C-alpha cells in the first residue's frame, strides 16, 4: 500500500471511527466547566407594605441584573438506544452577583445569591453509534432554588431605606423547561470531549424585608421584584464511558 493510500485510510478511520462508543446500554459520566449567563434583568421594585399596611407602590426606574458565573459541572448519561439517551446534570451551585440598574446603577453590586439548578434531559443523537462526532438535541426539566440571598451593599440599604435600616432577601424556587443542543467527540472508545448549550426560560420573585429603627418607631418594609434570569448555559466537558 502506498503512503497516499495509508494516509487516506487513516483519515477515513478517524472520521468514521470503529468503536460502538455511544450505543444502547452505554453509560457516560462527564465532568467540566459550566458558564451560566443570565440574559434578562429585574422589574422595578414594588413596595408591598409598611408594618403590614398595604402599599403596592412601584419604584419607577429601579432595577437589577444577575451577573454571569462559572462553576464545576457533572453529568450522568445512559443510552437507552443507539440514538436516545437520558441525562442527569448537576454541579456546584454558582454564586451570582446582583448589580443595580436604572436609578440603582450608582450603587454597583447590591448583593449575591447562590443558584441550584439540577436538570433531567432526554437527548436524540444523530449519526451512527460508531461515529466519532455526534451532534444531538435535547429537552428536559429543571428545578431551580436559591440559597445565600444576601444584600451586601449597606450604602444602598441605608440610602434607600434609612440610616438604621437592615435588609434580608429570599427568592422563590420554580420548575422550568430546558432546551439543549450540543455534540460529543470520541477521542477513544472510552473517552470523549463535549460541548453543549442550554437555554432555561427561568424567572423568580425576590422578596426583600427591611427593618428600620427610626425616631417614629420601628418599621418593617416588605418589597418585591420579579427577576427574569433566562440563562444561556454552556458546558465544556470531558466524559468517560463505562
What does this structure look like?
- This is OmpW family outer membrane protein.
- Its main location: membrane.
- It is found in: Cell outer membrane.
- InterPro entries: OMP/PagP_B-barrel, OMPW.
- The chain is built from 2 helices and 16 strands.
- It is mainly β and 242 residues long.
- It has one domain: Porin, CATH 2.40.160.20.
- The longest helix has 14 residues.
- The strands form 2 sheets. The chain has an 8-stranded antiparallel barrel.
- Helix content is 9%, strand content 62%.
Observed structural traits:
8-stranded antiparallel barrel, signal, disordered N terminus, 5-stranded antiparallel β-sheet, OmpW family outer membrane protein
List the helices and strands and how they pair.
Blueprint lengths: L2 H14 L10 E11 L8 E5 L2 E6 L3 E5 L2 E11 L4 E8 L3 E8 L6 E8 L2 E7 L7 E19 L2 H8 L4 E6 L2 E13 L4 E9 L3 E12 L2 E12 L3 E10 L1
Antiparallel strand pairs: 1-5, 1-16, 2-3, 2-15, 4-7, 5-6, 6-9, 7-8, 8-10, 9-10, 10-12, 11-14, 12-13, 13-16, 14-15
Subcellular location: Cell outer membrane
Keywords: Signal
Pfam family, one: OmpW
Brief digest:
It is found in: Cell outer membrane. Pfam families: OmpW (PF03922). The chain is built from two helices and 16 strands.
Low-confidence stretches: 3-19
Strand content: over 45%
CATH topology: the name is Porin
> What form results from the Cα inertia axes?
elongated
Broad structural category: mainly beta
Tell me which CATH architecture applies here. Beta Barrel
For the record, give the distance between the C-alpha atoms at the N and C termini, rounded to a whole number.
36 Å
The portion of residues assigned to helices is under 10%
The major β-sheet equals: 8 strands, antiparallel, barrel
Mean pLDDT: 92
How many domains? The number is: 1
What order do the SSEs take from the amino end to the carboxyl end, as H and E?
HEEEEEEEEEEHEEEEEE
CATH class type: Mainly Beta
Keywords: Signal
Protein name: OmpW family outer membrane protein
Signal peptide: 1-21
Subcellular location: Cell outer membrane
Amino acid at each position: 500500500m502506498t503512503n497516499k493510500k495509508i494516509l487516506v485510510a487513516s483519515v477515513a478511520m478517524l472520521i468514521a471511527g470503529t468503536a460502538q462508543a455511544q450505543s444502547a446500554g452505554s453509560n457516560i459520566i462527564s465532568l467540566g466547566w459550566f458558564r451560566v449567563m443570565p440574559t434578562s434583568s429585574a422589574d422595578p421594585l414594588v413596595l408591598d407594605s409598611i408594618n403590614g399596611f398595604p402599599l403596592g407602590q412601584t419604584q419607577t426606574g429601579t432595577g437589577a441584573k444577575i451577573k454571569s458565573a462559572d462553576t464545576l459541572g457533572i453529568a450522568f448519561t445512559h443510552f437507552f438506544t443507539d440514538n436516545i439517551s437520558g441525562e442527569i446534570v448537576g454541579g456546584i451551585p454558582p454564586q451570582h452577583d446582583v448589580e443595580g440598574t436604572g436609578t440603582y446603577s450608582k450603587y454597583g453590586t447590591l448583593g449575591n445569591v447562590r443558584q441550584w439548578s439540577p436538570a433531567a434531559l432526554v437527548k436524540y443523537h444523530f449519526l451512527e453509534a460508531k461515529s466519532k462526532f455526534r451532534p444531538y438535541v435535547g429537552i428536559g426539566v429543571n428545578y431551580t432554588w436559591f440559597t445565600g440571598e444576601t444584600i451586601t451593599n449597606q450604602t444602598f440599604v441605608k440610602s434607600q431605606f434609612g440610616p438604621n435600616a437592615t435588609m434580608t432577601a429570599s427568592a422563590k424556587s420554580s420548575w422550568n423547561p430546558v432546551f439543549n443542543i450540543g455534540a460529543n467527540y470520541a477521542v477513544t472508545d472510552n473517552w470523549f470531549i463535549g460541548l453543549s448549550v442550554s437555554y432555561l426560560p427561568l424567572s423568580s420573585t425576590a422578596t426583600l424585608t427591611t427593618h428600620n429603627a427610626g425616631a417614629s418607631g420601628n418599621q418593617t418594609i416588605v418589597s418585591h421584584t420579579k427577576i427574569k434570569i433566562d440563562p444561556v448555559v454552556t458546558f465544556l466537558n470531558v466524559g468517560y464511558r463505562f
